[in-house]
Recover the amino acids of this structure.
């Protein structure tokens, strides 16, 4: 597959459509990561467990950070005029699942003799429905017609604060790289990145620290 401009979806200009577009692109990374981890767990790379388990853990920690940014910035803003209580409750369950998955993959990475593919599969499969339902619900509930409860200036400010939170608090060596190599080609234009960041910093600086992890990702880093 190619990342050429001809196959990249344009980011909407409409302030009210941008949040849903962004959420759909971000959530696709977690859906692809979930499915990809399950596929590898059915035939685990026993000779490279350290890298695979590190990769699997980044799915969980990246989803945890994504939810943290929503809990700290997005939900408090949206809930001044809209009801996102269902999503808040879903976060509590998913936080528990991701924390457990991250802890178990780290423990197995430190002690490969304890690796148990079925245990990790069970954690994911038992909670697949709520994870995928949540990812779908958030996208649906950010429909442009709902967001018109806010002014364009309010939405622009919320987006700016959310972007700032992500840039200043996320780990560029794990979360940022995870997002890039789980973004389908048609969404590679989001978020818009300078050429130097996309083609140099991401693969050769940020991606190099855990290079062995990303061989299990479904898409290219850049």
């Amino acid at each position: 597959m190619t990342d050429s401009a001809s196959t990249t979806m344009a980011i909407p200009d409409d302030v009210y459509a941008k949040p849903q577009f962004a959420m759909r692109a971000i959530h696709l990374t977690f859906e692809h990561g979930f499915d990809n981890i399950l596929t590898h767990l059915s035939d685990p790379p026993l000779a490279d467990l350290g890298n695979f388990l590190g990769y699997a853990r980044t799915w969980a920690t990246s989803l945890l950070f994504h939810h943290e940014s929503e809990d700290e910035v997005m939900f408090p803003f949206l809930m001044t005029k809209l009801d996102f209580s269902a999503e808040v409750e879903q976060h509590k369950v998913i936080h528990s699942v991701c924390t457990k998955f991250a802890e178990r993959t780290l423990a197995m990475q430190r002690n490969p003799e304890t690796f148990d593919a079925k245990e990790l599969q069970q954690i994911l499969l038992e909670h697949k429905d709520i994870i995928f339902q949540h990812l779908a619900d958030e996208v649906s509930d950010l429909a442009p017609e709902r967001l018109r409860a806010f002014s364009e200036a309010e939405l622009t400010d919320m987006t700016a604060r959310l972007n700032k939170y992500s840039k200043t608090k996320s780990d560029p060596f794990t979360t940022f790289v995870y997002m890039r190599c789980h973004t389908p080609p048609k969404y590679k234009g989001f978020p818009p990145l300078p050429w130097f960041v996309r083609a140099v910093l991401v693969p050769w600086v940020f991606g190099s620290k855990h290079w062995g992890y990303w061989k299990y990702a479904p898409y290219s880093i850049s």
Confidence is low (pLDDT under 50) at residues 1-6. The chain has one domain: 11-171. Helices lie at 18-41, 49-78, 85-110, 117-141, 144-147, 152-169, 172-180, 195-206. Residues 11-171 form a domain with the Four Helix Bundle (Hemerythrin (Met), subunit A) fold (CATH 1.20.120.520).
